[in-house]
Write a structure and sequence with these properties.
The chain has 420 residues and is of the alpha/beta class. It has helices spanning 3-9, 49-52, 61-73, 85-97, 111-127, 149-152, 181-194, 218-231, 252-256, 283-287, 308-323, 326-341, 370-379, 401-416; strands at 28-32, 35-38, 43-46, 102-108, 136-140, 173-175, 198-203, 207-208, 214-215, 234-238, 262-265, 277-282, 350-356, 359-364, 382-383, 390-393. The chain has two domains: 27-59, no CATH class; 61-323, 3-Layer(aba) Sandwich (Aspartate Aminotransferase, domain 2), CATH 3.40.640. Helix 7 (181-194) packs parallel to helix 8 (218-231).
């Protein structure tokens, strides 16, 4: 191992791992396309695009060149009292790209913060109108919205990762998604009793990501829009995972033809290069803050919000979406994964195989040792990180047919080999 690795391991604190017992992380030297090149010379085909961010693959020249050009000109200025071209241009482009009247863009550096800002916007929307009772949210079983305190409170409390904080977090309403008429009626009855406490409904549209890659359909989201309108509560779509082509549409809201009041975006926004997220609100939401009263302003301001380098990367990423049919690519990838992974349904311990756009999921009855399973994938030359009880693929939308075949072949081979 290089000297930097051993020195770093004495000091770094890595995410989602027990530092005492977990296997040592792999030392990465560089990336290219859909490949991670390790310090020891091995190459891994990345099956999850670095937590779903690298939609154009690694090191896309258009984005890296835009970052370099912007760095030479101006890497960052605060947005407190200042504005720069890249942030203004990106906000304008996002407002044109997003559905309906989602037209006011508030930048932040991470998805969790973007969701926190959405929650804060929703509560203050009511406070600015003199309504102090609407401070709770309806979220859904199987949902995941982040790891900060406010976002943990709207994740599924039974999903495991945040159960340690039970009793510490604010309490919200965690309900069943209205997947059918029966569950829709149950949510309707719940809102009839509690709407005056509810600021908003928040959902990951079409796919609940880190909670287990759980799918639901467009009518589910249409029911949520109808119930939100019926009871006068706000509807928030958390599209941090689903946005930018991952489901086969640019945004899940496009596929469902549903316009939320607030949307959060992030992850693939910069093509997996720099941290950037955004909370985008409708004109109706913004108007509740537009006032002569100073305290009616949104009093929030991440230090690096609207970072010029990140905004330049995001603008270049949008160029790539405009100049290449990434949505067609996502759906073609999905067809290939459906064909290749469908036979896994016959394997012992496999509960389901499901695909939507550039997302493929093999759901298992259980995974005994996720770390060991990950190491078996590494031995096959692929980088796949199972979560909960699922093995999933979310590759770059630029992955080659041959590389995709290696990924799906590795999944089949490892799952066919026995105990997991």
């Amino acid at each position: 191992m290089p000297a930097w690795y051993d020195d770093g391991m004495r000091h770094i604190w890595l995410p989602y791992r027990q530092m005492k017992t977990a296997a040592a992380p792999l030392a990465v030297a560089r990336t290219r396309g859909s490949r991670i090149v390790l310090e020891d010379g091995r190459e891994l085909i990345d099956g999850i695009a670095s937590w779903w961010t690298a939609v154009h693959g690694y090191n896309p020249p258009r984005i890296t060149n835009a970052i370099a050009k912007q760095a030479a000109r101006m890497p960052h200025v605060m947005l407190g009292g200042l504005l720069h071209e890249q942030a203004a241009k990106l906000a304008t482009r996002l407002a044109a790209l997003l559905p309906g009247d989602l037209s006011r863009v508030f930048f932040s550096e991470s998805g969790s913060v973007a969701v926190e800002v959405a929650l804060k916007m929703a509560v203050q929307f009511w406070l600015n109108q003199g309504v102090r009772s609407r401070t709770k949210f309806i979220a859904f079983k199987g949902g995941y919205h982040g790891d900060t305190f406010a976002t943990m409170a709207i994740c599924d409390p039974e999903e495991g990762m945040h159960t340690l904080f039970s009793g510490v977090l604010p309490e919200h309403f965690i309900c069943e998604l209205p997947r059918d008429e029966e569950s829709a009626e149950a949510l309707d009855r719940f809102l009839a009793d509690h709407a005056d406490e509810v600021a908003g409904i928040i959902v990951e549209p079409l796919v609940q990501g880190a909670g287990g890659m759980l799918f639901h359909d467009e009518p589910c989201l249409q029911r949520l829009r109808g119930l939100a309108d019926k009871y006068g509560v706000l509807l928030i779509f958390d599209e941090i995972f689903t946005g930018f082509g991952r489901t086969g549409a640019m945004f899940a809201s496009d596929a469902a033809e549903v316009v939320p009041d607030i949307m959060t975006i992030g992850k693939a926004l910069t093509g997996g290069t720099l941290p950037l997220a955004a909370t985008v609100a409708s004109g109706k939401i913004f108007d509740a803050f537009y006032s002569d009263e100073p305290l009616h302003a949104l009093m929030h301001g991440p230090t690096y919000m609207g970072n010029a380098l990140a905004c330049a990367a995001a603008n270049a990423s949008l160029d790539l979406f405009e100049n290449n049919n990434r949505l067609l690519a996502a759906n073609e990838i999905g067809k290939a994964m459906t064909t290749a992974l469908g036979p896994c349904l016959t394997l012992p311990g496999v509960k389901d195989v499901r695909v939507r756009g550039g997302i493929a999921v093999v759901e298992l009855a259980r995974i005994e040792n996720r770390e060991a399973l990950c190491q078996r994938f590494v031995a096959e030359g692929v980088w796949i990180r199972p979560l909960r009880n699922v093995v999933y693929l979310t590759p770059a939308l630029t992955i080659s047919e041959a590389e995709l075949a290696v990924l799906t072949g590795a999944v089949r081979k490892v799952l066919e080999s026995g105990t997991i």
